[in-house]
Please model this.
Amino acid sequence: MALRGCLTLFLILLSGIVYAQKTTVLLSTSVITPVTEINTTSSPTHSTHASTTTATITTIHTNVTTGAPTTSSHNTTNSTTDAPTTTIHNTTNSTTEAPTTEHTNATTAPTTTPTPTTPPVLNPTVGNYSVRHFANSSACLLAKMGLQFSFKTSVNASLQTINLDPNVTTASGTCGSGDNNSSLMLKSEKITVQFVFTNVSQKFHLHALMLSIDLGNEGIFNESNTNLSLWEASVGSSYMCKKEQSYKISDKLTINTFELQVQPFAVQKDTFSTAHECSMDDTSLLIPIIVGAALAGLIFIVVIAYVIGRRRTYVGYQTL
Model:
């Protein structure tokens, strides 16, 4: 009986020890705050970089050991708290770009001064001129013409043209008879021109021409030709050419005449005698030329028509 009671007491004591023991409870909590990074760029000339990192780590360890209420009791609490670590990095980079230089290339075309255009010279006014032995005597030389002079002061100079104005021109000269020459001098403010007519075998012609033009600051232009053979007609008649005529006097001088008519010898009653017309005014040859051209054209058309007709007939025979 005593042995059984001891064994029972031992088992009860052993059970109390087993139940009194308490396993250690460990409680761990970790909190990590995520890292946030902010990059901000406002303009090409300013850059701001902000980096903020916040890390908070909290660790709590709790160990509790509880024994049997009758034997022993141990309470152990371990609490560990790490102070939050905060790291803030503020980086500000300010970059100022160099000022932009704009290059403007402006090209201005050179201004060209237009060359002044010389207006064309109008046809000259036709004037009537006469030469007399005396102031009240009959005229021994008659002339009617409009005169225009084209000249060069040098070979390489530009051509200049000037008209003789009969309203400001005076006429003088010499009367010829037989083998003597007749002359006509026309003089205006700037122009002096002299015509010399000769009589050879009862036919006259313009033999010489002398011209002088006052050019002001450029000096005086002088030109002449004493070996001409112009305006030929029989003595006792006049020479007439109403259309514009151009005569080359020299390499530097050309004269243009308008409605020309001259009679240097044997003038009767201050009027022109029967006129010898120039070839330009002579219409007697114009009609034959027109008729001949018309006939030639008609003959040409007939020949062409005949050739074409023969060729068609020949082709028709070969087909048959």
Notes: The chain has a mean pLDDT of 74. DSSP finds two helices and 18 strands in the chain. The longest strand covers residues 139-151. The longest helix spans residues 286-319.
